[in-house]
């Protein structure tokens, strides 16, 4: 099968092999294991320095084409990509648009016009919560949402499901729960909690992509925070292993104005600076020093793990950036990720009581957001990836005041879920009465977490466009977005050999992106289980039109079955042992 593009259009073509009536046929011909190749035109090498490579296009129209990975660098070029539905792999990439006549007549050839073809996104931070808290999210709905946004791999966090992935037995239960439910490929992290050090290496053998521990209360009792002694033990145990040790880096500094210990479990501070419904009160209760103190603690122990990748999840405070850069300069292998919501939302835009915006660490001020954008563009940025930290809950737990409740977040709409796990009643015109909620609008009592898996591409592309229009230099291109959300996230979880790039031999995971379409996220457009997200009502530029997973189309915007092609999930659990 083949994907191609012209300077003015992109095309996807597939090879078929014969007349046996199947719509999509394998690339292998007559059992000879000979792959079909484009016939009359020899593929051009995707090497801009190689002889025969087309001269660099200067026409702006030429830029609306494919982001292709070549030798770990990214290239925006017209291209034809041949993919095999049998192996699910990319079998040829040609840096020009081949006409349909270049291929055998049985080839499926799809022309994507001016749309972009990019590698499927790898979202390296997602909470799917199944089993145990399946009313919050699940493999089926969470991966549908991913597929709808061009995300072809998600990596599930070890907490919020019950049991958590802190033991081999827990991991096996999670794998069992995932079976037959995944619309995209799913990798898994293990968890570090006090007392589970002897589970870590068995989990590495079982194929987890990394580990996460909390330096502050996680919010769920089955996933307690780790002490310095626990961190030391985990570092010593995992040192020299091809894995990533990740930290939720928030800690209460020894001297903190107005904060009591209870703030760890998200209870109000001893002396709140305002009412508990004011976003500012919440923001003040988790200052940047929580993050910098925790990161300093991790760095102080890093000498115990000189042969281990350390990683800070969901970095929010820019004050941590110089500390991380300094550590990296001194040779410590530490990186960070940030999230779509820290880049697309700012504290100034959060209405009091709107707990949909609550997450930890918090969404900070616009100035902080600008600093994150700048670091992403910096030379040797310590922020290597952008992820969703998709962490949903039922709408009741967000304690939304009546004036903020939307039809799909009203508590009465969510007492039950249908068997499919999708609450279709949100589509019905059944507006219930506005309901008062006990503790409504209380940022300390509400669950912290933001739903956004599948929205990353439109969020980053729209934000970047706005920044460019405002004359700001820190506006990433589509190539930057691919680097941050596909290539580098795949590397972060040890999947660079299969995921995150359009290159021969890689999984044919492809996102078809219309970078010009304007649209607004409405309740019906959310595919996760509980349609409650601060992104509702946001206007975006750029929309995912199709998603292909290992050579099969799994999502088509506007198509039947809410766009989910094939009616059956074809995603797989990734349990291969990490080797890099
Ligand atoms: Zn998380």
UniProtKB/TrEMBL annotation:
Domain Amidohydrolase-related, chain residue ranges per copy: 117-248
Xref: Pfam families: Amidohydro_1, Amidohydro_3
Cofactors, names only: Zn(2+)
Protein known as: Allantoinase
UniProt-listed InterPro entries: Amidohydro-rel (IPR006680), Amidohydro_3 (IPR013108), DHOase/Allantoinase_Hydrolase (IPR050138), Dihydroorotase_CS (IPR002195), DNase_TatD-rel_CS (IPR018228), Metal-dep_hydrolase_composite (IPR011059), Metal_Hydrolase (IPR032466)
Annotated transmembrane regions: none
GO CC, one annotated term: cytoplasm
Domain of life: Eukaryota
Domain Amidohydrolase: 476-555
The entry's keywords: Hydrolase, Metal-binding
GO biological process: purine nucleobase catabolic process
Record-level Gene Ontology MF annotations: allantoinase activity; metal ion binding
């Amino acid at each position: 099968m083949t994907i191609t593009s012209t300077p003015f259009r992109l095309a996807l073509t597939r090879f078929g092999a014969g007349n046996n009536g199947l719509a999509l046929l394998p690339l292998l011909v007559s059992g000879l294991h000979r792959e079909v190749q484009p016939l009359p035109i020899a593929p051009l090498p995707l090497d801009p320095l190689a002889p025969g490579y087309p001269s660099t296009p200067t026409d702006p129209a030429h830029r609306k084409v494919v982001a292709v990975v070549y030798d770990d660098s990214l290239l925006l070029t017209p291209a034809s990509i041949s993919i095999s539905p049998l192996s699910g792999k990319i079998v040829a990439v040609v840096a020009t648009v081949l006409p349909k006549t270049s291929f055998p007549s049985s080839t499926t050839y799809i022309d994507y016009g001016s749309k972009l073809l990019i590698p499927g996104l790898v979202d390296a931070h997602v909470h799917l919560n199944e089993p145990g808290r399946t009313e919050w999210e699940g493999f089926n709905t969470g991966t549908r949402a991913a597929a709808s946004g061009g995300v072809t791999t998600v990596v599930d966090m070890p907490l919020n499901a019950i049991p958590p992935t802190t033991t081999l037995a827990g991991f096996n239960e999670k794998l069992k729960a995932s079976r037959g439910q995944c619309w995209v490929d799913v990798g898994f992290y293990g968890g570090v909690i006090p007392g589970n050090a002897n589970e870590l290496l068995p989990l590495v053998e079982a194929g987890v992509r990394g580990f996460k521990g909390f330096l502050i209360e996680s919010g769920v009792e089955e996933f307690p925070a780790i002490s310095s002694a626990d961190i030391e033990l985990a570092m010593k145990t995992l040192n020299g292993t091809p894995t990533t040790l990740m930290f939720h880096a928030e800690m209460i500094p020894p001297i903190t104005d107005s904060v009591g210990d209870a703030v760890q479990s998200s209870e109000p501070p001893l002396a709140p600076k305002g009412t508990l419904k004011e976003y500012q009160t919440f923001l003040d209760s988790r200052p940047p020093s929580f993050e910098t103190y925790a990161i300093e603690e991790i760095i102080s122990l890093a000498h115990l793990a000189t042969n281990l990748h350390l990683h800070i999840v969901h970095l929010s405070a820019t004050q941590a950036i110089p500390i991380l850069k300094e550590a990296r300069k001194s040779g410590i292998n530490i990186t960070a990720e940030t999230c779509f919501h820290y880049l697309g939302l700012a504290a100034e835009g959060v209405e009091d009581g709107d707990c949909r915006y609550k997450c930890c660490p918090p969404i900070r001020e616009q100035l902080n957001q600008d600093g994150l954008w700048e670091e992403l563009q910096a030379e040797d940025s310590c922020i290597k990836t952008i992820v969703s930290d998709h962490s949903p809950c039922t709408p009741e737990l967000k304690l939304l005041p009546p004036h903020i409740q939307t039809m799909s977040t009203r508590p009465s709409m969510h007492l039950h879920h249908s068997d499919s796990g999708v609450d279709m009643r949100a589509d019905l015109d059944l507006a219930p009465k506005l309901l008062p909620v006990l503790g409504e609008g209380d940022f300390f009592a509400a669950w912290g977490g933001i739903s956004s898996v599948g929205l990353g591409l439109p969020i980053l592309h729209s934000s970047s466009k706005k920044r460019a229009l405002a004359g700001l230099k820190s506006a990433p291109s589509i190539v930057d977005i691919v680097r941050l959300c596909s290539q580098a996230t795949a590397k972060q979880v040890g999947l660079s050999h299969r995921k995150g790039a359009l290159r021969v031999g890689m999984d044919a995971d492809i996102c078809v992106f219309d970078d010009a379409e304007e649209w607004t996220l409405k309740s019906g457009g959310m595919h996760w289980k509980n349609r409650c997200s601060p992104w509702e009502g946001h206007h975006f530029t750029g929309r995912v039109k199709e998603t292909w997973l290992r050579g099969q189309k799994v999502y088509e915007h506007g198509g039947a079955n809410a766009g989910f092609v094939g009616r059956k999930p074809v995603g797989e659990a990734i349990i291969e042992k990490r080797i890099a």
